[in-house]
Amino acid sequence: MSSLSRDEVAKLAALARIEMSEAELVNLSSQFGSILDAVARVQELNLEGVKATSHPQPMENIFREDVVQPSLTPDQALSGAPAQEEQRFRVPQILGEAE
Amino acid sequence: MIKNTAAQMSASLAKGEITSVELTKLHLDRIADVDPKVKAFLHVDGESALNQAAAVDADRASGKKLGPLAGIPLALKDVLAQQGVPTTAGSKILQGWKPPYDSTVVAKLKAAGVVILGKTNMDEFAMGSSTENSGYGPTFNPWDLTRTPGGSSGGSAAAVSAFEAPLAIGSDTGGSIRQPAALTGIVGVRPTYGAVSRYGLIAYSSSLDQAGPFGRTVLDTAMLHEVIAGHDPRDATSINAPVPAVVAAAKSGDVKGLKIGVIKQLQGDGYQSGVQARFNESLEILASLGAEIVQVDCPSFEYALAAYYLIAPSECSSNLARFDAMRYGLRTGESDGASAESVMNSTREAGFGREVKRRIILGTYALSSGYYDAYYGSAQKIRTLIIEDYKKAFTQADVLVSPTSPITAFKIGEKSEDPIAMYLADVATIPVNLAGICGMSLPAGLAEEDNLPVGFQIMAPAMQDQRLYQVGAALEAALVSKWGGHLISKAPALGGAK
C-alpha cells in the first residue's frame, strides 16, 4: 500500500504553486495511497529494453519563412489582463523589496 | 424540425423550406425550454447566433455557393477559444475571459457558415468522466435527469441528445467524446491525433488532446468531421495530409469482407451485462452483413489506465502552469506588498477545482526527481507496448471494436467521491488516445436492466478515420431498420418538444 503524508502533499502543492488549505492537504493525502497503488501498476511489467513514447506521432522541426505574420494588437493581447499599465502586463512585486 | 438530422436540415435549407434564422430560433426556443433542466450550456448568445444565421440566409439568397452545413446550428465545447465570447474550460480561473482570437476549429466552423449557438459545460479543463467537475455545476443526462451525461464533453453530448443542437464539438483526451456519446445515445468521434488542429484548444494533455464531432447520426457526424479537419500550420503536430473521405464512407456503409477484431481485454469483468449483450448483438449484425469477426489479443491494454493517469496528469501539471494570474484570468490575494508568488499561490488555490488540483499534484509527483523513471518513464514505455499491440492487431483486422463504456450512465454523485471508480469509466477509450489513433462511439441500443443507452466503439489506424464511418454507417443502418427509427427517438421528451 502506497501512501503520501500530509507534509509530502504540502511540498508538492508548494512546487505546483497552490496554497492548499489544511483540510485539502489531509484529504488529498488520504486519497493518494489508492491512486498511487492504481498507477503503480505500470511497474508490474518488465520494461527493460522498451523504448519510451512521449508522443503518438513522429515529430520533426517545422520551419516557416521568417516574415511578419498578422498577430494580436497590444490592446488585444492585454484585453484579458488582470492589471495593465503603459501597454504592459502589471504584475505584483517580483523581487523581495519588502523583506 | 429540431428532431431531424443535420443532413435533413441541410436539405430543407437548400430547398428554401426553412431559413437558417427560423432554424436557429427553433433551437434557441428549445434551449430556453429544456436547458434549465439539462444545463448543457454555460453561455448562449442568441443574438450572435441569429446574426450568423441571417448572414448565411443572405448569402443563400444572393446565390452564393454554400457548404452543406451552412446555416446549421451547433453547440461548442467551452474548451475552444471563440473571439469575444466567454471561454472558461469549465474553470473558475477563466471566469469572464474573452479570447482575443478564434481557435482554428471555430474559424473553420465560421468559414463553413455553421451557426454557433453557445458554449457547453464540461469537466474543468476536460478532467473528468461525468461533467460533475465543472466549476459551474453539473450537466444532467437527458435520458434520466438524475444521471450524468458522462464527460468531459457532457454538455455537448447532452445538447445534441436533448435536441438543443443537431451537432456539437467536443474534445477527447481519454474518451471525453466517445464516453458521453455512449451515455447519451448519440454518435461521437475522436479523430486521429493531429487530424484536427489544436490551435486554440485549451490544453489539458497535449500529446493526447483532440477535438472532434458529435451528431445524432453517423452521416451528420461525418459532415461535421469534414468541416473541422485538415492541416493547420499553427499546430506543429497537425498532420499534413488530405482529410480522409469520411462523408463518402458514411454514405457507403458496406462491411462485406471486412475483418472486425474484437479486443479480448476490453470486455468481461467490470462490463455491465446489458452493455455486453448489446455489444454482442451488434457483432452478430455485422457478421450477418458479411463482415468477418476475429478475436484479437492486446495484453498491454491492462496497463493503459495506469499509464494514462500518469501521462495525462504529468502533462497537465506542466500545461496548467500558464494559469499564473499575470496575463489573463483570475487574480486574487493582491494585498499591499503581496509578492507575485503569493498572488499566484492564492489564485490557483481559489481558481482550480478539486480534481484539477488532484491531477496537478499527481503529475508533479510523477515528474519529480527520484520518481520520474518509476512512474512517468514506465508509463511512456507502456505507451510503446500499447502502440505495438494495436499495430499487431491491425494486421489481423481492418477495424477493432469494444463496448465504449463498461457501464451505462451513472447517478450524479455516485462516483464523485471515489476518483478510482470514476477513472475506470474510461478503461475502454483510453488506449486509442495513448496510441494517437481514431475511434467512434455509436448507439447500440438500451441495456435491458436500466433502459439506458449503450455505446459501440470502433477503432481504426491513424488517418484511416473513414473506416470508422464505413463500419458505423453499416451497423447504424441495420440497427435503425431493426428498431424502426434512431435510438434517440426513444429518449424522454423533457416537455415542450416541437
Automatic annotation (TrEMBL), chain A:
Region entry Disordered, spans: 71-99
One record GO biological process: regulation of translational fidelity
NCBIfam families: gatC
Protein name in UniProt: Unannotated protein
Organism in which the protein naturally occurs: freshwater metagenome
Lineage: unclassified sequences, metagenomes, ecological metagenomes
From TrEMBL, chain B:
Chain segments annotated as coiled-coil in the UniProt record: none
Any GO CC annotation of this UniProt entry: mitochondrion
Name of the protein in question: glutaminyl-tRNA synthase (glutamine-hydrolyzing)
Catalytic activity entry: L-glutamyl-tRNA(Gln) + L-glutamine + ATP + H2O = L-glutaminyl-tRNA(Gln) + L-glutamate + ADP + phosphate + H(+)
Taxonomic lineage of the native organism: unclassified sequences, metagenomes, ecological metagenomes
Keyword ATP-binding: yes
Chain ranges of the Amidase domain: 22-468
Single Gene Ontology MF annotation: ATP binding
UniProt cross-references to InterPro entries, sorted A to Z: Amidase, Amidase_CS, Amidase_dom, AS_sf, GatA
Family statement: Belongs to the amidase family. GatA subfamily.
Keywords: ATP-binding, Ligase, Nucleotide-binding, Protein biosynthesis
E.C. numbers: 6.3.5.7
PANTHER family for the chain: GLUTAMYL-TRNA(GLN) AMIDOTRANSFERASE SUBUNIT A, TRANSAMIDASE
NCBIfam families xrefs: gatA
Keyword Ligase: yes
One GO process term, biological-process aspect: translation
